[in-house]
Amino acid sequence: MLAIQFGQRLAEVMPQRLSPTTAAAAPPEAAPTADQLEFSGKAGTPSWLPQLARWQTQFGTQGCGLLVGLAEQVGQELVTPQQESKWASRVAFANSTYESSINPRLESICKKLADASTLGDLKLSPILEERSAINAQAQGGGLINITMGMVELFDQAGGPTQPQQQPARALHDYMREHGLQSEDLLAAVLAHEVAHIEHRDIAASWGQQVLTEQLGMCGTQGPGHTLLMELPEALQNSNWEKEFRADQRGSQLLEKAGYPKQNLKHMLVALQMIETAFNKPATDQDHPPLSQRLARAENF
Question: Hey, how many other C-beta atoms are within 10 angstroms of the C-beta on 149?
Fold first, then answer.
């Protein structure tokens, strides 16, 4: 997808998102012309960027957050589900493996979640990764990566005997206390990722990526400098909100699929135990602190 197409659509939808007050403050002639949407003479600097920077000045401190939201909207418009699927398949099967004792279980859970979702004919395909890391990630196109490390940890903690090492030992006690099985935690993990697919967050991330690249072309000077400086916080705020939404929707999917919706909260507690055991975050910086996610999960 050409960046110019992204920039053109971004400039088109910008006025549509203005509040009445802000729209009145923005002069009609501020809208870029077709000529202005071509690349400028400076190598790599799109000429629509100064216009966006002027809009950002009018928006005030919320400008960059609004711009990120618009970029995500454009990403979801321009990236089709078919493209998502094609791109996802390039990376989803790296380090993949098949275990007859695991893959059918994951596929069964995904079938229940798919029936509860709004995805229609889109097939959910769990991809088991032969990695010891404890992780899961939606790749778009219905593909979801989940690591062997995560599955084995939940299986070990949910077994009949208490493991000797942390975090499986603490998780074993917690699961017994709450009557949880490995499938309960795996279903919660997968439901969260299915919610990302429903919300088309992967396409939104593409919009974020293109916006970041375009602003980065401005370097540390020029009209995009303020936007570039404010971008990391705006991206983090948006990504955190996506995770909160995926948690909430994930709990709804669990309930519709026949699992207790509280399993989403139990899964977050499990991640906290992993953090404590390894003394490092269980998720990356695109995710809110688990304490915040758990606080919100109390209201699901």
Answer: 15
Q: Is 39 helix (H, G, I), strand (E, B) or coil?
A: strand
Say if residue 53's pLDDT is above 80: no
Helices (H), the chain: 3-13, 20-25, 48-59, 63-78, 81-92, 103-116, 148-157, 168-177, 182-198, 201-216, 225-256, 263-278, 290-297
Determine contact, residues 102/128, Cβ cutoff 8 Å: yes
For residues 105 and 241, is the Cβ–Cβ distance under 8 A? no
Which residues have CB under 8 Å from 258's CB, separation 6+? Answer: 112
Q: Predicted confidence band at 58 (pLDDT cuts at 50, 70, 90)?
A: low
Bridging pattern class, strands 143-147 and 136-140: antiparallel
95 token code pair: 């380090």
- CA-closest candidate to residue 56, choices 240, 241, 231: 231
Confirm if 133 and 281 have CB atoms less than 8 A apart. no
Task: Check whether 44 has a pLDDT greater than 90.
Answer: no
Burial class of 252 by CB neighbour count within 10 A (0 to 12, 13 to 18, 19+): middle
- Exposed / middle / buried, residue 260 (Cβ in 10 Å: 0-12, 13-18, 19+): middle
- Reported as type and span, the H/E element at residue 126 is strand 125-129
At residue 57 the predicted structure's pLDDT band, cuts being 50, 70 and 90, is low
What is the pLDDT, as a whole number, of residue 3?
A: 65
Q: Is the pLDDT of residue 275 over 90?
A: yes
> Quick one: pLDDT at residue 218?
64
